[in-house]
Write a structure and sequence with these properties.
alpha+beta, seven-stranded mixed β-sheet, about 30% strand, about 350 residues, globular
Length: about 350
């Protein structure tokens, strides 16, 4: 090859690499400028006519990560080692209808916490799942907070996930006087964070007949990040918030998808299918001795999406539960075993009373 041809090839390659670098820089700059930047605390709803909650009443609450109606048992997921990005649209629609049917079966619940609820995402064919559920659960007041708002997720490269707008929602038969979105002050570093979730939790304040408040907290904490730093830091942040409200004399109940396993959860749980490699247990002493971590030790709440679900084979875990302040009496807890038919999580129901 002649010297002039080598020079020409090198020049062409240099120009090409420079062009790719410029395009990548513009891509990252654009997405950085357009990155969703919620405030530390944002008011979702206010009501001056909220009903006071009778202290002696037994209450029921259901929590469920619905997996944006896209992670039924036939799905694996590329983020967790699988291959698929999304199911067919008809499957998403069926999943959502099945999820709604389950919620309607348990509509005696006073409160419902939902996580991974899409309102405008390519992965769920831009179906507004929040509006669908609101229409089918008209007896509930709804508070929604966005925690994932990205114009375009470029992974996987062969079939990008695309636009995602999703969040968490609290459904309540007893209208709260105030609901707020609280941002977690932790995230991945740039540039990864511009394509990741902006984690948050929803607080709903309900007046009680003894002039206190029931503070309901719906959360979806960060998934395992290789070190466990993010979910643990978020839990500490939540604990400090809960203790502050409890010290005011209020009742505090936290629920959701923690991406952590409860304190005292045993590696023998669920036999050989327990996903011990991806399990981080809340350390003893994280909460005071009178605080209650409420979970069902018999039924898994979450399954691995590295592969499709096969009962007795697929790895499972307990990531969805409740934490209650000492002035709340827990009467029962039950994880509903749906065998991950329409979501990669099973719903959890707890009944409780407020101690006067």
């Amino acid at each position: 090859m002649s010297r002039s041809l080598i020079k020409k090839v090198c020049t062409t390659m240099g120009t090409l690499l420079l062009g790719i670098g410029i395009l990548l820089t513009l891509f990252l700059l654009t997405f950085t400028l357009m990155d969703y930047k919620p405030g530390k605390v944002e008011t979702i709803s206010l009501s001056s006519k909220a009903t006071r909650l009778e202290v002696s009443k037994t209450l029921k609450i259901l929590s469920w990560n619905i997996g944006y109606a896209g992670l039924n048992k036939e799905m694996d997921f590329f983020y967790d080692g699988g291959k698929m990005v999304r199911p067919l649209q008809k499957q998403v629609e069926k999943n959502l209808a099945d999820i709604c049917s389950t919620l309607q079966t348990h509509k005696d619940a006073d409160f419902i916490f939902l996580q991974e609820l899409d309102i405008d995402s390519r992965r769920s064919y831009h179906i507004n799942e929040l509006e669908y559920l609101k229409q089918n659960l008209p007896e509930y007041h709804t508070a929604y907070a966005t925690n994932y708002n990205v114009l375009f997720v470029p992974m996987p490269i062969a079939q990008p996930m695309g636009k995602v707008k999703a969040g968490i929602a609290t459904f309540s038969k007893i209208p709260p006087i105030k609901s707020e979105r609280h941002a977690f002050p932790f995230n991945f570093s740039w540039p990864l964070k511009i394509f990741m979730l902006d984690r948050c939790f929803i607080t709903s304040e309900i007046k009680t007949t003894n002039d206190k408040k029931l503070i309901l907290i719906n959360t979806h904490n960060s998934a395992f990040d290789g070190t466990g730093h993010l979910p643990k830091a978020e839990l500490k942040f939540l604990r400090e918030y809960m203790e502050k409200e409890y010290n005011k004399g209020n009742y505090v109940l936290l629920g959701g998808d923690f991406n952590l396993s409860p304190t005292s959860f045993s590696k023998e749980s669920f036999d050989s299918t327990y996903d011990i490699d991806n399990a981080i247990v809340i350390p003893f002493g994280t909460f005071g001795k009178d605080w209650k971590i409420i979970f069902d030790p018999e039924v898994p709440t979450n399954r691995s999406t590295a592969c499709t679900y096969q009962k007795g084979v697929t790895k499972v875990n307990c990531l969805d539960f409740f934490i209650a302040s000492p002035n709340i009496q827990i009467e029962s807890v039950n994880c509903i075993d749906l065998e991950f038919e329409s979501s990669d999580h099973n719903p959890v129901i707890t009944t409780f009373k407020l101690i006067q």
